[in-house]
Amino acid sequence: MTAANHFLDANGRIGSADRTPREISVKGVVQLFTRLIAVVLLLVAPGIWIAPHMSSLPELFLMKLCGSFIFALLGIHLLFMARHL
């Protein structure tokens, strides 16, 4: 018996076991970084409200509301933008 470096995949196509690892591209790094920033922004949006030792002054309510809205909106936008980079 001899060893072969090719095989049939689930669709019946011939594949090779001698695959080289994917190269890291600039596009992939930018896409990963954009997704990371988006997830951080989406976690910060509710974090403004549950952070300990934050003052609950009525004057800060509108600022916290606007901040969480902007962070959430920007996070969602970056997540969808990263899909089309």
Element-level helix/strand string: EEHH
Chain-averaged pLDDT: 82
Helix content: 55-70%
Shape: rod-shaped
Number of strands: 2
Task: Provide a count of the helices.
Answer: 2
Compute the CA-based radius of gyration. 23 Å
* SS content category: mainly alpha
Strand ordering within the main sheet: 1-2
- Overall domain count: 1
**What characterizes the major β-sheet?**
2 strands, antiparallel
* Uncertain parts: none
How much beta, percentage-wise?
Answer: 5-15%
Spatial gap, N to C terminus = 47 Å
Note down, in words, how this protein is organized.
This protein is mainly alpha-helical and 85 residues long. It has one domain (24-83). It is built from 2 helices and 2 strands. It has helices spanning 26-50, 58-83, and strands at residues 6-8, 14-16. A two-stranded antiparallel sheet has the order 1-2. Strand 1 and strand 2 form a beta hairpin. The N and C termini lie far apart (47 Å). The mean pLDDT is 82.
Tell me the layout of helices and strands:
Layout lengths: L5 E3 L5 E3 L9 H25 L7 H26 L2
Antiparallel strand pairs: 1-2
Helix pairs in contact: 1-2
Quick overview:
This protein is mostly helical. It has helices at 26-50, 58-83, and strands at 6-8, 14-16. Helices cover 60% and strands 7% of the residues.
Key terms:
85 residues; mainly alpha; two-stranded antiparallel ribbon; 2 strands; rod-shaped
